[in-house]
Amino acid sequence: MKKLILILLIIGTLFPLMAQKKNDPHKKKDRSKSNLPLQEEHISPHVLAGLNAGPTIDWMLTKVEGYAATKPTLGFRFGIPVDIRLTEKENFYVNTGLFCKSFKGTLEFPWSYDISVNFPNIPDPVIIEDVRVTTQRTYTSFYLSIPTGIKLKTTPSRQCVFGTNIGLLHQFLLTGKKQDHFKLGDLNVETEKVKNDEAALFQESIYIGIGLEYIIAQRFRVYFYPTYTYTFNNYYNKKATNIITQVKGKASIHTLEFIFGIGL
Question: Could you tell me if residue 243 is inside a domain?
Answer without folding.
Answer: yes
